[in-house]
From TrEMBL:
Signal peptide span: 1-22
Protein name: Superoxide dismutase
Domain Superoxide dismutase copper/zinc binding intervals: 57-134
Annotated organism of origin: Streptomyces griseoviridis
Short name of any one Pfam family annotated for the protein: Sod_Cu
UniProt-listed SUPFAM superfamilies: Cu,Zn superoxide dismutase-like (SSF49329)
GO aspect biological process, one term: superoxide metabolic process
Top-level lineage group: Bacteria
């Protein structure tokens, strides 16, 4: 299983590629979750009861030339019927769940009211009976360069849940500018 997890992490590194140009900007990252410290892992599970090692995640971003951005999430292998919170975070994943930093905010603020689905990318979902789930968030705005780097899965929807898993994603603006 470890070889499969490492192969999945290598595949994620190869597939996590952005493209820019006349059609906007797109990126895709996918991986199988591994325990913190696994070599070459791009996705970590911090709670193997809620996000078992070997479960899978895919995140896609597309930003149109207008700046409108959609982020899509797909997962498999999670706990059927469990409601998860998912947000884009500022920094890449690491063995320490806190390393991903805070939520990416379109309008950065220390006001707790700014933590909302209009100012952040929220991809909350409930896993279906087969353990799969998906979500889409759409915004009229684009990411600032270097300020959005991961997707963190929380143990409950909203803003108060514990971090249970993380995938590093090379989010980017459509033209390298804000």
């Amino acid at each position: 299983m470890v070889a499969g997890i490492c192969a999945g992490a290598v595949a994620a590194a190869v597939l996590a590629a952005g493209t820019g140009g006349a059609q906007g900007y797109s990126v895709r990252a996918e991986a199988h979750f591994a325990a913190p410290g696994a070599a070459h892992a791009k996705a970590f599970t911090y709670d193997r009861k809620l996000v078992p090692a070997g479960s899978w995640i895919e995140v896609r971003q597309h930003t149109a030339d207008s700046g409108a951005t959609s982020v899509r999430l797909r997962v498999t292998g999670l706990v059927p019927g469990h409601a998860y919170g998912v947000h884009v975070h500022q920094k890449p994943c690491a063995a320490d769940p806190a390393a991903a930093g805070g939520h990416y905010q379109h309008e950065p603020s220390t006001d707790p009211a700014a933590a909302n689905p209009d100012n952040e990318v929220w991809l909350d979902f409930t896993a279906r009976r087969d353990g799969a789930g998906s979500a889409v968030a759409r915004h009229s705005w684009d990411f600032r360069p270097g300020e959005a780097s991961s997707v963190v899965i929380h143990d409950m929807p909203g803003t108060k849940g514990a971090r249970v898993a993380c995938l590093t994603v090379p989010f980017g603006p459509r033209d390298g500018r804000s």
